[in-house]
Write a structure and sequence with these properties.
The chain is an alpha+beta fold. It has a single domain (about 30-235), classed as Sortase (Sortase, Chain: A). It has helices spanning about 1-45, 100-105, 230-235, and strands at about 80-85, 95, 110, 120-125, 150, 155-170, 190-200, 205-220. The protein has an eight-stranded mixed beta barrel. The longest helix has about 45 residues, at about 1-45. The chain starts with a helix and ends with a helix.
Length: about 240
Amino acid sequence: MAIQVAGELLITLGLVLALFVAWQLWWTNLESNQAQQEAIHTLFDDFDLPTDPPEPASAPQDYGDPVVLPPSDREGETFGVVYIPRFGADYSAPVTTGVGTAVLDRLGLGHYPATAMPGAVGNFAVAGHRQTHGKALDPIHTLVPGDHIYVQTADGYYDYVYRNTQIVMPDRVDVLAAVPTEPAAVPSERFLTLTSCNPRFGSAERIIAYAVMDSWQPLNAGPPPAIAAAVAANASGGR
């Protein structure tokens, strides 16, 4: 009798664990992806996008120093969208102020509030999950030097070029410094830092991807060609 009861308890425990895993790896992603799309659509309703696609420029244009959004002090405020073609032609993820669970578990990418805003000199640093809650940075390990990472805000499009990846321990907060890993340095470049857990199904370490801004263009100039289709899809969904 005791063996039978123990066996039934083990079966029940196995079912509970299986349901928990399914909830973590499937349901949380479903909920987060839906919340991310809603956040993007709401944001796009506030964007002053050109009605007709601009004519492509015959040569690269210099738009001067990038316009930079003022820092947001309101956690949970979505202010931008990140596009990473390496992650898929339709990849886009909202960027929201804050890196607490309320943001990261629902809204894709969270911006470390003490770091720079997109386009500013310094380090624009964001965090995201890999295997749960929308897994916004699951393919972070697939980035190749030279890959482009685009950030869209109400002011324009900021084009960052990926340089390298580093695996660090969770206490390495210096990766968020204005010059990543060099907290005493004075920045002269515009950095983008992506942070996530490592390995993919664990959190013992952090995987950090670094990029440097290459160019920017205002919103009314239209999106860079590499993300035009993804931007158009977001625009159509937001209207």
